[in-house]
Design goal:
Layout (H helix, E strand, L loop, with lengths): L1 H4 L6 H23 L9 H15 L13 H13 L6
Helix pairs in contact: 2-3
Amino acid sequence: MLGLLTSWRVADWAHVAAMIVMALVNLTLLVLSEMKLLVFAWSWLVIVGTVGTIVLALSRFAGPHLCGSLDVATIASLGRLSEALGFSAA
């Protein structure tokens, strides 16, 4: 869809990274919706995922400051948050 809507050439890694990030965002939104912490129709996930993927893939021109850095401390804090919410990796 990105190739149909724009004439910009975007690297494949930007597409893949954007799809992975938006899949995780959509999963989070779906879980929050199912837990009744966030109320919205699941069909909005399609729109959020499409728009988010296009924006993230095109934003590679904006530099690395868009999403911030993902370091060990950030990953550890995300792990603690998921455990506090009752999710387990084991």
